[in-house]
Design goal:
The chain has about 100 residues and is of the alpha+beta class. The protein has one domain. Helix content is about 30%, strand content about 20%. It is built from three helices and four strands; from the N terminus they run βαααβββ. Strands 1-4-3-2 form a four-stranded mixed β-sheet. Strand 2 and strand 3 form a beta hairpin. It is globular, with a radius of gyration of 13 Å. The two termini are about 25 Å apart. The relative contact order is 0.25.
């Protein structure tokens, strides 16, 4: 989110979650927004510097965005936002386990 306006850096599209991610969050007693808000704000989580820089480019160019986080029980989750279409719209953002990719 933009710190000055409290707005996300991009439109996330439809919000989706896989069964594995839903189970992992329930077991960790966490909510999807715990991870989505970070992703929408440009906090890419547990990525190396090169991948974070790639996300910054993707944000500017409308490419796919990927963040990686861990639940309170140390289960890794990804948040993926689809690339923008010609009109600049992103279809969806999905929370998933890497094994569900």
């Amino acid at each position: 989110m933009n710190a000055q306006t409290n707005q996300p850096l991009f439109s996330p599209g439809q919000l989706l979650m896989t069964p594995g991610a839903l189970q992992a969050m329930a077991e960790a007693q966490q909510e999807p927004m715990d991870f989505l808000q970070r992703h929408f704000a440009g906090d890419w989580g547990d990525l190396d510097d090169e991948d974070k820089q790639e996300n910054e480019l993707s944000l500017r160019e409308g490419y796919r965005l990927l963040s990686a986080y861990h639940t309170n029980l140390n289960v890794k989750l990804w948040v993926i936002t689809e690339a923008a279409d010609e009109a600049g719209n992103r279809a969806a953002s999905t929370i998933l386990l890497p094994s569900e990719y």
